[in-house]
């Protein structure tokens, strides 16, 4: 596996916990988006980016500055995989929508973004983070569907690992 880092934004700790689980399974480092800089991005070939979703589908607050850092560093030649946390019951109409903003930023910065997971088995009304029948990354509801989190992470890692 090429140099890989998990970068996350988390206000309540849910996305941080998921990021740490993913990093542990891959044997890589995690870093809070508030602490990234261009040198960190430049020194890794693979970036796994995670955000929680707030309000009407916005990404976690620290990502707004983080996106600026991603864009200024440039992501040409880098591989990006996305994961997002959401609440499929209380915010069923914006479930994991924050991933869409990260996806758009990564594409604009020149990254190759890996395909996401199928929407099969998920219960939600709508999400900007869905194209066709797939999320733009790994979508997780660790509040209402925590019994599915580990299995979904494992399947996602198996799917993306060959590209890393």
UniProtKB/TrEMBL annotation:
Record's function text: Low-potential electron donor to a number of redox enzymes.
Record family assignment: Belongs to the flavodoxin family.
PANTHER family documented for this protein: FLAVODOXIN 1 (PTHR42809:SF1), FLAVODOXIN 2 (PTHR42809)
NCBIfam families named in the record: flav_long (TIGR01752), PRK09267.1-4 (NF006738), PRK09267.1-5 (NF006739)
Pfam family, one: Flavodoxin_1
The organism's taxonomic lineage, starting at the top: Bacteria, Pseudomonadati, Bacteroidota, Bacteroidia, Bacteroidales
Transmembrane segments: none
InterPro entries noted in UniProt: Flavdoxin-like, Flavodoxin, Flavodoxin/NO_synth, Flavodoxin_lc, Flavoprotein-like_sf
Domain annotation Flavodoxin-like: ranges: 4-161
Source species of the chain: Segatella hominis
Cofactor(s) listed in the protein's UniProt record: FMN
Keywords, comma-separated and alphabetical: Electron transport, Flavoprotein, FMN, Transport
Name used for this protein in its record: Flavodoxin
GO molecular function term, any single one: electron transfer activity
Record keyword Transport present: yes
Cited SUPFAM superfamilies: Flavoproteins
Top-rank taxon: Bacteria
């Amino acid at each position: 596996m090429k140099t890989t880092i998990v970068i996350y934004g988390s206000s309540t700790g849910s996305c941080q916990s998921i990021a740490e689980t993913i990093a542990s399974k891959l044997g890589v480092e995690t870093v809070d988006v508030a602490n990234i800089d261009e040198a960190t991005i430049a020194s890794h070939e693979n970036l796994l980016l995670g955000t929680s979703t707030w309000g009407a589908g916005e990404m976690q607050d620290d990502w707004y500055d983080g996106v600026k850092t991603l864009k200024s560093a440039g992501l040409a030649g880098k591989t990006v995989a996305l994961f997002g946390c959401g609440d499929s019951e209380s915010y069923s109409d914006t479930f994991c929508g924050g991933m869409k903003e990260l996806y758009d930023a990564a594409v604009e910065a020149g990254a190759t973004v890996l395909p996401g997971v199928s929407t099969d088995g998920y219960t939600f009304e709508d999400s900007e983070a869905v194209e066709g029948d797939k999320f733009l990354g790994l979508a997780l509801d660790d509040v209402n569907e925590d019994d599915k989190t580990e299995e979904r992470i494992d399947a996602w890692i198996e799917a993306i690992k060959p590209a890393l």
